[in-house]
Amino acid sequence: MKKIFMILLMATMVFTFAGCASDSKSTTLNVYNWGDYIDPEVIKDFESEFDIKINYEEFATNEEMLAKIQAGGTSYDVIFPSEYMIESMIQRGLLHELDFSKLDNMKNIGSQYQNLEYDKDQKYSVPYLWGTMGIVYNKTKVSDSVDSWDILWNPKYEGQIIMLDSPRDTIGITLKKLGYSLNTKNPAELEEAKQALIEQKKLVRSYEVDTYKGQMIAGEAAMSLAWSGDAMLLMSENEDLAYAIPKEGTNLWFDCMAIPTTAAHKEEAEIFINFMMRPDIAARNSEYIKYSTPNEAALELLPEEEVNNEYLYPKGDLNKLGEVFTDLGEFTTEYDRVWTEIKSY
């Protein structure tokens, strides 16, 4: 009987400990971010420090991210939309208001990056990284001055020009080339941009989002539309490459962190966002990705040559450098239609 009792006792303990082990399993946080847009070691450090697992997925465009959120299926806890998509998601009721009492590292974000048009009251998002759109070009292949968007229409470089497979970006710079706002809702201006891109198409090597990087590093193309951080990364890989912001003005963009209303772990999501705003973490991500950080405390931890790089941290009034994308509302369908017509021409 004593033996049987001990066996029963041990069995009970096994089930008890098994139950405790099950209860102590860490939360899994679903994070949805742009491709190659975080230092992988940062994820490991977060998991280790907070005992919260990260299920990390990537998207290529804001529109892809929005469609996935609206479709349901995966309950993403933290997402990284751009400014105009933040505005759109707020209007659609797709974002949680953040509890800033739990985001004490918000104090590290520069005031010039807060309360911007896309989130006026700074309730739904915090800035992650920012930058410009420009032209990355190979100095051994391009003999002309790269100071205007017009060079992307120069027949001399036929088959050597890469454009972004992104309607807002590619149509946007075309509108700037023509002297219009990249947020225009004027049908005539949009039609003019469409015709310009159709005329340019015979010169275009390809429309890409990420694979253009390898082509530029390998010297396979003369020039490409590029986000500033990507350009800096490419320049570090190939000394023949340079970056220019055209005189007609550019897109000044902001990528942010936010929490969808469908999130299953809002509290843990805010822990993650606060962690990402920590100066050492923000500096590591900025240095890894080569994009500009809005985290002023992180700037003190970055190499001096990066902080003094005029393309990463332009001097003066940012508003004079370019425009920030705004949500086009229902007029977005017109941009989508135009883009489909350009691509299928």
Description:
This protein is of the alpha/beta class. It folds into two domains: 9-128 and 253-313, Periplasmic binding protein-like II (D-Maltodextrin-Binding Protein, domain 2, 3-Layer(aba) Sandwich), CATH 3.40.190; 131-251 and 324-344, D-Maltodextrin-Binding Protein, domain 2, CATH 3.40.190.10. Helices cover 39% and strands 17% of the residues. The protein has helices at residues 2-23, 40-50, 62-71, 83-91, 167-177, 187-200, 212-217, 228-237, 266-276, 279-289, 296-299, 304-307, 332-344, and strands at residues 28-34, 53-59, 78-79, 126-138, 161-164, 204-208, 223-227, 241-244, 250-257, 322-323. Strands 4, 5, 6, 7, 8, 9 and 10 form a seven-stranded mixed β-sheet that branches. Helix 2 links the parallel strand 1 (28-34) and strand 2. Helix 6 runs parallel beside helix 13 (332-344). The radius of gyration is 23 Å and the shape is globular. The relative contact order is 0.18.
Short summary of the structure?
By secondary structure, this protein is of the alpha/beta class.
